[in-house]
Structure formats: structure tokens, C-alpha cells
Amino acid sequence: MAIFSVYVVNKAGGLIYQLDHYAPRADTEKTFSFPLDLVLRPHDERVVVAFGQRDGIRVGHAVLAINGAEVNGRFTADGKDVLEFLGNAANYPVSIRFGRHRLSSNEKLMLASMFHSLFAIGSQLSPEVGSSGIEMLETDTFKLHCFQTLTGIKFMVLADPRQTGIDALLRKIYEIYSDFALKNPFYSLEMPIRCELFDQNLKLALEAAEKAGPFGPGS
Questions:
Q1: Domain boundaries in the chain?
Q2: Which tens digits make up the pLDDT trace of 110-132?
């Protein structure tokens, strides 16, 4: 079981804190001969697999490295276009590492804002008055848990679907936020959280949750 990441979103929908706690690696590296038996396409400034899953390489996976050198978006380490490089038979055999791309800071900001809007829509769609909005989204590989405070701050945790004790963890994170961010004289409400004690205590809470599941009395 694992906790993947934590997001804190202010009442306006802005991302004010994000921590990647654990990122499972699903990278696959293979050596290919010409012609490449995968169909690659440019997408969002990356080169991704459009067709031809094999050996752990899936549609949507991005080209992360070529011949051991990290790829920068759509370009190789020495500035060559990835698609042009892989379309040249003279460059084969070639070793390519595929995997899920890492979210950029801008993408994380955008996703936080999108969830803020979905949360509001969920509240409005509820047949009951005073609905709190979306508290959990579930997929086959992770669950997104959300806790909104009375002041509108949202704490979100992405975790393994089997991870227990997330409700208690969210409230623990709120407690840490109150103790180490709100009581910090240098912190301004609604602004990004940059506090070493907040970071330290949050990481300790995540580690405790992963090891013990639900928080016990007095934790």
C-alpha cells in the first residue's frame, strides 16, 4: 500500500501546496531494430505511443530516453527531433525507454483548478441541500480522497486503492496545516505554503499512515 501525493487547494481553486510522496515506476526499456513496430505521435509537447502495445509498453506512454540519454519533450538530448531520429534507419539498433510522463508544475496547477470546478459541480448536482461535494474518486489504480474545511481549503490525497485510514490522515494533514502554516507569522492565507516544519510533519504523517493504516487515539 502507498500514498502517492498530497495537494492543498485554496478556496479560489489555486494550488498552494503539492507533494509527490511515492511514484511507482513503470518504465520499460527495449532495444529496437528498424523499422520501429510501434506507432508514435506527438502529443502535448511529447512523443507518445499511439498504437502497438507490447512488453509492458502501453498506448499513451511517452518516450523518456533514447540510448540512455533523457529526452526533452519532443527532442533528444542533443536537440534532434525524436520522430525524425527514430525514422532514420541509420540510428538503429536503438534503445528506447518508455513510461508515463511526469506532470509539470503547470499541469499540476491546471488539474487542481479542474478538480476545484468538479467539486463545485458535484455539490450543485446533489439532490440534497448542503452537499459537501466530491469526497472520493476511484479508479483501478488509485483513489483520490478530498476533505474540504469550513473555510474552503481542500486537502486531497492520492493513494493506493487498498490504503486504509485516509479520512483520518486528511484530518491529520489539516491539523498540521493549522499548527505549522496558519500559526506561522510569515505565512499569508491563500498563498503557497513554504514552511519546513509543515513539510517535515506532513512526511512523518504520511509514513505513519502507510505503516499503520488508521491513526490511533492520541496520534
A1: 3-23+104-212, 27-99
A2: 999 999 999 888 888 878 777 77
Q: Which residues pair with 95 in a beta bridge?
A: 31
Instruction: Determine the average pLDDT of the residues in 70-85.
Output: 90
66-74: list long-range contacts, CB under 8 Å, 24+ apart. 66/94, 66/95, 66/96, 66/97, 67/94, 67/95, 68/95, 71/47, 73/45, 73/46, 74/42, 74/45, 74/46, 74/47
For the residues 66-72, what does the mean pLDDT come to? 90
Percent share of the chain, pLDDT over 90: 60
Backbone angles phi, psi at 27, to 5 degrees: -70, 145
Helices (H), strands (E): how many in the chain?
4, 11
Kindly report the length of the chain. Answer: 219
Element (H, E) at 117: helix 105-125
Nearest one of 125, 100, 116 to 148, comparing CA atoms: 116
CATH of domain 3-23+104-212: 3.30.450.70
Distance of CA 140 to the CA centre of its chain: 15
User: For the residues 138-160, what does the mean pLDDT come to?
Assistant: 93
Domain 27-99 has CATH 1.10.10.10: no
Whether the pLDDT of residue 7 is over 50: the answer is yes
| 168-219-178 Cα angle (round to 5) | 70
Taking the complete model, does pTM exceed 0.90, yes or no?
A: no
